[in-house]
Design a protein that fits this description.
Largest sheet: 7 strands, antiparallel
Number of helices: 4
Helix content: 25-40%
Order of helices and strands: HHHEEEEEEHE
Shape: globular
Strand content: 25-35%
């Protein structure tokens, strides 16, 4: 199924389905698509587990939109990074995604590598966001040697197996089993 602006919906009730939902929700809603309020509100409605989550997402999109005036492109690129299943029990899931957020502002491209936590609940036959689009965000121990390139498998493992000196709000990233998207079912 597809939702607003082509947002993929209708995921399998499996751990793989939860990873796919988390990744697609992050990619679609952490993008330039939220510049249009109607589209952003519709995506929040289609993916929120409850009214409180929907309201939090709409409020967040409204705040973010004010900083997008000079942004011509914005997207998260998870296939360059990795993911970890922090929690999965069939009723809920917590997925970590380590990826760059790439944006172009006033003609200048920038990349910010972070770990995003996306929390999901199984609601009405689909994986839905709970609490917010991104529940927590934190840094990693180091950025890739070439932040604009694609880190090798060895570099990803080296980065993600370190305990960050300043972990932000995510303190267990080094304890996770990180997987590359290239090796995952899509």
């Amino acid at each position: 199924m597809t939702g607003p602006a082509g947002l993929p919906l209708g995921y399998d009730h499996t751990q793989t389905g939860a990873v796919q939902a988390a990744t697609n929700y992050l990619t679609w809603m952490n993008s330039i698509r939220i510049k249009d309020k109607n589209t952003a509100d519709a995506m929040a409605t289609a993916t929120a587990a409850d009214h409180k989550t929907r309201a939090a997402m709409i409020e967040s999109f409204d705040l973010l939109r004010t900083g997008l005036d000079n942004v011509s492109d914005a997207q998260t690129e998870p296939t360059r990074g990795a993911y970890a299943v922090q929690h999965y029990d069939g009723a809920s899931a917590s997925i970590y995604v380590w990826a760059p957020y790439v944006f172009t502002q006033s003609g200048h491209a920038s990349q910010l590598w972070s770990i995003f936590e996306i929390r999901l609940d199984w609601v009405d036959g689909d994986w839905k966001l709970t609490k917010a689009l991104v529940s927590r965000i934190g840094g990693t121990a180091v950025d890739p040697a070439d932040p604009t390139g694609n880190p090798s498998s060895a570099e990803k493992q080296s980065i993600l197996s370190r305990t960050p000196a300043d972990p932000g709000e995510i303190t267990d990233s080094a304890e996770q089993e990180w997987l590359e998207y290239a090796n995952a079912a899509r």
